[in-house]
Design goal:
The chain is mostly helical and 862 residues long. The protein contains 45 helices and 8 strands. It has a 5-stranded parallel beta sheet, sandwiched between helices. A 3-stranded antiparallel beta sheet has the order 6-8-7. The protein starts with 19 loop residues before the first helix and ends with a helix.
Length: 862
């Protein structure tokens, strides 16, 4: 298959080795070039781009298009060209000025055509650009040149008659840049983009077809993950995968398919069945991912591995996995592999005769297998299968761990729980992991309304006492009792230093609690400790992708609450999301989507935030619920309304059904106020603002209270005592939000600003330098922001003075400060701000400053 057949010359050439202009210059100077590259490296695309460059210089190249049906016909390819210059060459004549000949897939030429062109290059009649397929790393066949045509072309290079250019596989950065410009890619959320980049294996062809398949699924209302996982046998993606995977050696195909059946298998276990040399080679080639834990858990490239299994046959891989399971059961006292146990349990669940025979050895062994499978299913949010595995295990042995998993599954299913069964479980009867899971189960049942917290289903070795402290911290925070929340989190911290995953959660709880208390310096100390864990050279074995992404999510939410710049934290998200995609960690990818949604709203991209959130809701299949999800969705609704997308904010708000939790009821009232203000319903906004302020009154929540009081000020409903309280708060807390509010209070009280929309957004957007602007996948969230130089013309219509004032607004200056800087009257500055906002449709002064700053930055780079 000739890759890239649907591409156009207008698409960019991605990669340092793809300079079409320089290549065309070499040809114009009379230097022939052989372009060698593996399948999917973009050889054909580069050749077409060079043809376009030559045409721009007035040179019409003679294009030879080889075909496999002509490869056995002497001079078949040359005779099929029909170019008069080729006819002249065949007759022994030299066309005036010579001729530039382009040959794509030169290895498929017939022998006579290849030798003729080689002779023409040697005697100077032809300047040749030919693309040649070469085997890639781990190829099945090293020699792809059955007819010797490839060697004939390479001899031109070896004899010094031509230069050779080798096209490498796309680097991760190249792949991100290419993905960003593919048609329809802007409709994909960041999570599916990360999964596509991993599966493309550096191939331009695979990347294009994966994107096309995912875009088509989104357009049709289908799950893009399912679309790229299960494709029709003769679809474009399936054909591309078949060719790409068919190049691999059979042993590599078998290894990939085997590892794909056992996700997260430890390296030491895998080497019991596969050569360590082969595993290391596949890791180096990028076909297998090894996490940074001491155990080196392995995950195969799912797309390549599934296609390898199709080519080898499912029965063959079934036999390999079954044999591995039997060996584990025989050597039970020596080693154990949870993924293998899960595979046995799944076959047992399906009624596979061999699996049933395997698990008849002893009740204890059957219970152990069922427990691993039930825990795995619960951690993936698959409560139905968890319940089935637990029930099957309990028929063999009445294990407290199995009863716990059965109760956990029922809680997650939301079908009720047997409280007596939970109470009958004695924590001392459980293993260490079981004690932590029991505490989390009780939290879900008691506090979450049988919902799944965003990061509840995590593995770890926490004991019940630590979990109780963390649970108490969460309860206190939900009631706006943040001093107690800090106290409980610090108790958990004191008990958890030897448990990395639990210590990480305790640090995050303490950091969030300190943020709500208005002590940002202390919160940042906790978050700095979190970053040290995340940056450890060798990651602790119990800190999973779910833990790491949960940490980023909590820190992003805390920065949003504090009014601090979360750009540096968000810069970490892409790398962690890539890791989660390679590890096939579904729960972690859901958390990454929520984090991306929160950050997009803080970068001034609420539409992208909404896209990320809706994608998460679709993939979570209804399990994303409870207070954590409500708060995230309320924040998005507020950002949409503040950015002028009022109807979308209202629609999002209307579908949120809040429970009895104080912090959620308050957030609902506060967001309702913002939406009403954006709708121009000031009287109704005053009512809801007063409700929100009543819920935060006499509570130790400075960042929340400051926002509530400022809204009352903007709405003209603040009392003298409340005004004094607001002034006291902004001077007694070290939250960055207080600095912004101080400036705005001065401007409001001086009569400089009286625009109700100033109360819609209460803190600045996050910094462009650290992650907000030009959002490439490897740097932050999604795709480069379209160049504003080619964007709406109103930005160009601003006067020099209007742009100057807008930039000062972006820097945080009030109108009075701007007037002093520019030696203008305050009234004149207000007039310029109003006119500029009207021209470009900016909802607020802040949006005006942000848009103009982005435009100026891109103009300076252009």
């Amino acid at each position: 298959m000739r890759e890239g057949r649907s591409w156009t010359w207008s698409e960019p050439l991605i990669g340092a080795d793809r300079d079409a202009t320089a290549l065309a210059g070499s040809l114009l100077a009379g230097t022939s070039v052989i372009v060698a590259g593996a399948r999917g490296s973009g050889r054909s695309h580069l050749l077409r781009a060079v043809a376009g460059d030559l045409a721009a210089h007035g040179v019409a190249a003679a294009v030879v298009r080889p075909s496999t049906v002509l490869s056995d016909v002497p001079f078949g390819a040359l005779d099929a060209v029909g170019d008069p210059r080729i006819v002249e060459l065949r007759r022994g004549r030299v066309p005036d000025g010579g001729v530039v000949v382009l040959v794509d897939d030169v290895h498929t030429l017939d022998v006579d055509s290849a030798r003729f062109l080689a002779r023409c290059v040697a005697d100077g009649r032809v300047t040749l650009l030919a693309t040649l397929l070469i085997p890639r790393a781990r190829a099945r066949r090293v020699d792809l040149d059955a007819t010797g045509v490839g060697q004939t072309m390479l001899s031109l290079w070896l004899d010094g008659l031509a230069e050779r250019l080798d096209l490498s596989e796309l680097t991760p950065t190249d792949s991100e840049q290419l993905l960003a410009v593919l048609p329809g890619a802007s409709t994909l959320d960041a999570t599916i983009c990360g999964a596509i980049l991993w599966r493309a294996d550096g191939s331009r062809t695979l990347l294009r077809e994966l994107v096309a398949e995912a875009v088509g699924a989104v357009a049709g209302g289908r799950d893009p993950f399912a679309a790229i996982r299960d494709t029709p046998p003769h679809s474009r993606l399936s054909v591309a995968l078949k060719l790409h995977t068919g190049d691999l050696a059979e042993g590599d195909q078998e290894c990939l398919a085997f590892l794909n059946r056992l996700p997260h298998v430890e390296f030491s276990v895998a080497t019991r069945f596969v050569s360590p040399t082969r595993l290391e080679a596949l890791i180096t080639a990028g076909l297998v991912h090894s996490d940074r834990s001491p155990a080196r858990r392995l995950t195969a490239n799912e797309a390549i591995a599934r296609e390898a299994e199709r080519q080898l046959g499912t029965g063959r891989i079934d036999a390999l996995v079954a044999a591995a399971g039997s060996r584990m059961l025989d050597d039970e006292a020596e080693w154990w592999c949870a993924p293998l146990a899960v595979s046995i349990a799944e076959r047992w669940h399906r009624g596979d005769d061999a699996a049933v025979t395997e698990v008849t050895r002893s009740p204890a062994l059957r219970a152990r297998i069922a427990l691993d499978a039930a825990r795995d299913a619960n951690d993936r949010g698959d409560a139905a299968h968890a319940a089935a595995h637990a029930a099957r295990g309990l028929r063999s042995l009445d294990s407290p761990e199995l009863r716990l998993e059965a109760a956990f599954a029922v809680a997650l299913l939301g079908t009720g729980t047997d409280a007596d069964a939970i109470d009958d479980i004695d924590p001392s009867d459980l293993d260490e992991e079981g004690r932590g899971r029991l505490a989390r189960l009780r939290t879900v049942v008691a506090d979450r309304g049988l919902a799944v917290p965003l990061y509840a289903a995590t593995k770890g070795d926490a004991d019940a006492e630590i979990e109780r402290h963390l649970d108490d911290s969460a309860r206190a925070g939900a009631d706006f009792e943040w001093s107690r929340a800090v106290h409980s989190a610090e108790k958990a911290l004191a008990l958890s230093p030897e448990r990395s995953a639990t210590h990480l959660r305790a640090l995050l709880s303490a950091g969030m609690a300190e943020t709500f208390r208005g002590r940002w310096r202390r919160a940042r100390e906790h978050f700095d400790d979190v970053l040290r864990i995340l940056d450890a050279r060798q990651r602790p074995s119990d800190v999973s992708a779910t833990h790491r992404l949960s940490a980023i999510l909590v820190m992003l939410a805390s920065h949003q609450l504090a009014g601090a710049d979360g750009g540096p934290v968000y810069a970490r998200l892409a790398g962690e999301r890539t890791e989660a995609a390679r590890e096939h960690d579904v729960a972690a990818l859901l958390i990454a989507g929520v984090a991306a949604s929160i950050a997009d709203t803080n970068f001034g991209r609420p539409a992208d935030g909404l896209r990320e959130w809706e994608s998460v809701r679709t993939k979570s299949a209804g399990s994303l619920s409870g207070p954590d999800a409500d708060l995230a969705e309320l924040g998005l609704a507020e950002a949409l309304a503040a950015s002028g997308r009022v109807s979308e904010g209202r629609a999002l708000l209307s579908r949120i059904e809040t429970g009895d939790e104080l912090h959620v009821r308050h957030a609902r009232a506060a967001v309702e106020t913002t939406v009403l203000m954006a709708e121009g319903r000031a009287d109704d906004a005053r009512t809801t603002a007063r409700v929100a302020a009543g819920l935060s009154a006499a509570r130790e929540v400075p960042p929340v209270r400051m926002r509530d009081l400022f809204r009352l000020l903007v709405l003209g409903d603040i009392t003298t005592s409340e005004s004094t309280e607001l002034r006291t708060l902004v001077t007694t807390t070290d939250l960055p939000l207080a600095i912004d509010l101080t400036r705005r209070l001065d401007a409001w009280e001086s009569g400089e600003v009286h625009d109700v929309t100033e109360g819609l957004r209460l803190h600045r957007f996050w910094s462009a330098e650290e992650g907000g602007h030009g959002a490439a996948l490897g740097t932050i969230s999604r795709f480069p922001v379209p160049a504003l130089s080619a964007a709406p013309s109103p930005l160009r219509d601003l006067t020099r003075r209007e742009r100057e004032i807008a930039l000062l607004v972006e820097q945080g200056h009030t109108n009075r400060e701007i007037a002093a800087i520019l030696y203008l009257s305050v009234r004149t500055v207000e007039s310029h701000v109003y006119q500029a906002r009207t021209k470009i449709g900016a909802a607020t002064r802040g949006e005006l400053g942000r848009l103009v700053a982005q435009w100026e930055n891109q103009q300076s780079r252009a």
